[in-house]
Hints:
- The protein contains seven helices and seven strands.
- The protein is α+β, with helices and mostly antiparallel strands.
- It has two domains: 14-98, Elongation Factor Tu (Ef-tu), domain 3; 109-180, no CATH class.
Amino acid sequence: MTKVQSDMLMSEAIEFVSVATIFPDSPLWGWHFIVPEEIATKFIDGTDRRVICRINEKLTINAALMPNKNFWFVMLNQKNIKTLGVQPETPIRIVMQKDQSEFGMPVPEEFREVLDQDPQAEKYFMSLTPGKKRTLLYLVGNVKNSDSRIRKSLAIADHLTVNKGQIDFKLLNEAFKAYNKM
C-alpha cells in the first residue's frame, strides 16, 4: 500500500498512498488516513509531530501525526473530505513534509500585522500553549475575506489584552460578532 520514493531527510517530502477511512464506533475520532510507521518516524522530532500534507493535489493541510495503538494517522475534517470528494476506503495520494513553521500553521498576514501593532497582545499570544496559538491562527486563516480576517485579528488581540492572556472561547465568539458589526 505504501511506496516511499526514497530515503529522504526529515525536511524533504515523502510521497505515499493511503486510504481515507473512518474510525469505527468512535464518538471522538472520525475521518483520517494511516501513515506507515517507517514514514511517520521520519517526521517525529521529540514531541514535535507537525507535518504538512498535500492530498491528491487538491488540498494542503497542516496537521499532527497522531498515535494509535498499532499505527500513526492524520485526522481529516468534513471540509477536507468534501474538498477531496472521497468516500470511506478511497485511496489517496499524500505528499508529506515536516512542518518547519514557527507555530505549526501559517500566520495570516492580517494577524501578523495586528500583533506587530499591539505588543501587549503579541506578548499574550506568545505565552499561549502551542495548541491555543494554532486554534487562533486557524480561526483567522479560515476566513476568505481580508477585511473579515482583520476584524477577527483585532477581536483576538483585544480579547487577549482585556483578559490578560486568558481565552474564553464563548466570550471570544461574542467579540467576533461585535467586531463583524463594525
